[in-house]
Amino acid sequence: MDQHPPVLHHRPDRPNAAVLLLHGGREDGPEPPTRWNLPARRMRPFASALRRELPHAVVARARYRLRGWNGPDADAARDARAAVDWLAGRFGGLPVVLVGHSMGGRAALWAGGHPGVRGVVGLAAWCPPDDPVEQLAGRQVVLLHSDRDRMTDPRGSWRCVARARAAGAAACGVRIPGSDHAMLRRSRVWHDLTVRLVHGMLDPDGMPEEFAADLTRGTVPGPGEAASFGAAVDEPAVYEPLTVSGG
What we know:
This protein is of the alpha/beta class. The protein has helices at about 40, 45-55, 75-90, 105-110, 155-165, 185-200, 210-215; strands spanning about 5-10, 15-20, 55-60, 95-100, 115-125, 140-145, 170-175, 240-245. Strand 4, helix 4 (about 105-110) and strand 5 (about 115-125) form a beta-alpha-beta unit. The termini are far apart.
């Protein structure tokens, strides 16, 4: 099945960066997305906010061939990498930030090792414990998750942050209390945080101070390494996310 080029939400005359949006899907779904594609529509407010606040960045959305991840085929990850390849071929060597929701967050993490990718923002990402993280070394990774998510486990995001740090990524997590998987409750918080984080990944001077401090705090011990208090660890240390209040 042929790859689909991304949807371009914003294409400035002289772009200096690109943001690729990756929407959610299903664990298994061998059929193409529906015409209405509600998960893709949920990303439209993010596209609008990014277009408004980052006028010199290309804002695009990946188009999946199939609705599901589909086990070892990892179809959404393949589509994410193909979309980054397409952006690189169309716009040259622009730095790219991936923004993915749910299954799209998983796809963004898998595609985060692409040479053109500067960073990953995961929104209620689906983070199975055995997924690879080595590809994230040298990247910035921020995972946002609600404490009331009933579709994807926020603890999976925090474990992923710890593992990504151990692999050499500058990673942190942000808890958004009182929201939901669809990001409808406290939606402005999700939109505003995403824009601020993308801006900071593309311009280090623009990274919000509270996130910059956590991203530069250093990596947690990796498997078999000694923790700071002298004990050996078999897994990366437990990560405690930042928490957003108000909004």
